[in-house]
Design a protein that fits this description.
GO terms for molecular function: metalloendopeptidase activity. Keywords: Signal. This is Peptidase M23. The structure is a single chain. By secondary structure, the chain is of the alpha+beta class. It has a single domain, classed as Glucose Permease (Domain IIA) (Distorted Sandwich), CATH 2.70.70. 36% of the residues are buried.
Amino acid sequence: MRFLLALLITLSLALPAHAGICDDWDLLEKKVRDGAIGKEAAREEIVGLHGRLLATYRDGDARPAPLVFPVQGYGPRAIGGRRGNGYQPAGYRFYDGNRHGGHPAHDIFIRDRNQDGRDDATGEPVSIVSASAGVVVATNPQWERPSRIRGGKYVWVLDPATERYYYYAHLAEVKVAPGQRVEAGTVVGILGRTGRNAYPRRSPTHLHFMCLDFDGGRMTPRNTYRELLPALH
């Protein structure tokens, strides 16, 4: 009995502070993704949870900071398309979940001709880092083919200073958990080829990097291309 009590205390101390709020956001994100909740009800929950997240994690002295490039060892030249034209927000609605349209994100490609998920030059896995400081609000650490989840293994991070939500998708491994605080440059995962459209060989290995403004609960896409151009990496 004493051993069990000590184990429970140890586990409780290991949990991130206030992880419950992030666990709630994580659960809601899965409901939205899977179409298991109505859009209006989901938006009401998002608004309530966002307020609780800011009250818990926002530092009144924090100021918006320049982004860190999210793919370690790479820079803006790895962004797909021409001058950021891969960002196509038309048709995207967060509350459409896995059935959303558009492509309100930038795909950032690595050198991986044999599609083993490793950098061709170094032979090593490629780390994905948080572009901003913030708190992890959702993850999807498991994905197996033929799952039709588009993002595969992914991470959501809220930056309370800007009220932006950052999404990192197509990971091979998730390195963080809901409730965990991160700094800009903290490793959140290892890049992979998970996700309905990222897994097939026709798709080069890439990170799907998206930013949403809270925007009163509308979760509006934001084009970060110009912010990524001078980003540290």
